[in-house]
Amino acid sequence: MRRRTFFGVGLAAAAAGTAVTTTRSQPKGPWRFFTPEEAATVDAICECLIPADRDPGASQAGVVNYIDLQLTRPFKRYQKAYRQGIAAVDTVSRSQFSQPFVALSADRQVDVLKSVEKNSRGFFDLILNHTRQGFYGDPRHGGNRNMASWKMLGLPYPPVRGRMHYEDRPKEG
Amino acid sequence: MALKHVNAVIVGAGAGGGVVAKELATAGLSVVLLERGQWHSAADCRKDDLRNQRTTVLGNAFGPDDERNPRVFVDNRGEHIVLPSEGAYSNNAACVGGGTFSYGAQAWRYMEKDFRMRSTYGDVAGSTLEDWPIGYSDMEPYYEKAEWEMGVSGDDAANIFKAPRRKPLPMPPLPPAKEHQLLLPAAKRIGLHPFDIPMLRNTVPYNGRRSCMRCRWCVGFACELSARTGTHNTVIPAALATGHCELRTDAMARDILLDDRGHARGVAYFDAHNRLQEQTADLVIVSAGAVESARLLLNTRHRLFPHGLGNRYDWVGRNLQGHTYPGVSGLFDFDTFDDLGPGASIAICDFNHGNPGMVGGGMLANEFIRLPYQFMTQVPPWISRWGAEHKDFVRSAYKKTIVITGPVQEMPLWNARTQVDPKVKDHWGIPVARLSGGKHPHTLEIARFLAGKAEEWLKAAGATQTWKRIPPNTLSGGQHQAGTCRMGNDPKTSVVNRDCQLHEVDNVYVIDASVHVTNGGFNPALTILANAYRASGNLLKAWKGSKVSS
Questions:
Q1: Which of B44, B57, B223, B334 has the most A C-beta neighbours within 10 Å, making it the best mutation to test the interface with A?
Q2: Cβ separation of A51 and B391 shorter than 8 Å?
Q3: Domains, chain B
Q4: d(CA B352, CA B348)
Q5: How many separate helices (H) and strands (E) can be counted in chain B?
Q6: pLDDT tens figures, A62-82
Q7: Above 60 in pLDDT, residue A9?
Q8: With the CA atoms of B83, B84, B90 and B93 taken in that order, what torsion angle do they form, in degrees rounded to the nearest 10?
Q9: Is the confidence metric ipTM above 0.85 for this complex?
Q10: What is the count of residue pairs from A and B with beta carbons less than 8 Å apart?
Q11: 8 Å CB contact of B391 and A110
Q12: What is the pLDDT of residues A92-102, one digit of tens each?
């Protein structure tokens, strides 16, 4: 509960000060694979891919937590791709804007990602798919915090039409 | 310690093997049913949208596992190791029930012309298109048996194209969901003949199991109520109840054991503790699915069969086919989603045959219910792949789309094949399947044609925008995999005879979709089940007559 409150406040602050990117909340671990710096970069990439609008974006939905967790599980085989891919994003960022990716404005981050999409399609598609999974997938896997995307889509809450549901209803003829 | 000799050992407890086990055990034969996977239950319906048999990004729920079961896939970029959770693997579930444990359960009879493709359409350049050695009339009693014994719901009375049936389906269809209500009058308006899809799914209590509760978690998942019907909750329990059948799970077959004369004497397999076991038997029935059945035959080497069992004329593993699915999405300006599973419910057979310039065709139906992550593949090509536009489209369109899709009856290809890899071995040291080949160009022409028809249907239903997906020219297989041990009368151009018995060895049978000469423009499950009933009947006649013995 405490953590959820902290996030709410942090995002409100970030939303209020979109121009001042340094006030952006840091994604919260514990990190299983990423360094805190990598986690911050991945969090920022994911947020560009699925940005907050009137509904939460990838950052608020904890997509980076999904990716971090799965990189120690079935995504182990992508660990190297992430380590290199994150570094490559920062390299592009520094060469274009002389700053690390997390320090850029949202517009500039999008510019960097467009370049990554063009030149490192493999890593870009990997993180794009993982971001979609972490945002639209089941919260049990570490993302979609508070069922953010399912609420956005207006799916019944909780999204289980199961045995309880069956028994609650009068028998159909 | 040697295992007790039995009359029949069956490799694979899926659609084919499950039926054979029940038929043989009921007739009093002693049977061992080997299954490399496990026996899952309704309690294994974890409603996990990222880890199931349909969406495998976090793995397959019902096997095989990524750790022990690689394959080699060859395409124009070279050869690569592929894992079961990756698309190119052509996976079908490895568990008791096989594909029928977690499938969508459409229960189609093939049409008369589907058994006579060559006679109907003639030669197709570049394809090994051929007639089956049996016709629809040979299959009809067994389709009926499968429908009534296992339980099929639906109503195909309005399908004027269907092959004649003696009995109607035993259960009524589910009440129509919103998509169905939109698509039904639209199809009729444009002169099509829509009807309720036959499904291996209880819509009323049947055979001691409950009826479908219409949840969202259907294709790819275990059925929480066991209302969906597979061999795991029908024929396999029935086989075990006879007292004549033993089911062994976690049993990975290595090869078929042959005596000096080339006669089969059983199966060598690795048990749950990776110990090599030899199960001797009078009969060996191979029901491991089109890829694994071919692999087992090819891995069975003998002085008399240096290129694999049944492979004297190089037909084993050839003609691997599945179904090419064109898909069309329609966007509506009102909600089409009412969260009622299974989703797929209405179909047309107007374009299975008789299409100008086309060799066959396929059935078209609405798609199963789309979970949010699955919806990513429904986003049209003109929407950005990421960013605000993509998110906004998903939000606004998720409940306003209908997808129509259907299985194209493919043109079989000599070079679409399963081999065994010369280098790569699995966890048990068994050479793995090596998949290569592509699709016949005409298969893709049919797919484009069907997509056009699906688009007309969606527009008639009020879609404001539509977009098509035509599959790439890559190897087919997957859950509908078939064709690798072709059934035929001529030993030089087929692997098994019309009774599904190897031409080369009379006590080895292949009873699964491997024997399909062509794969119909339909989901193949009911045909696999019906053919297994038919082949079992013929096998038992031969058994009682002459006692095939080792």
A1: B57
A2: yes
A3: 6-44+62-546 (3.50.50.60)
A4: 9
A5: 9, 18
A6: 999 999 999 999 999 999 999
A7: no
A8: 170
A9: yes
A10: 83
A11: no
A12: 999 999 999 99
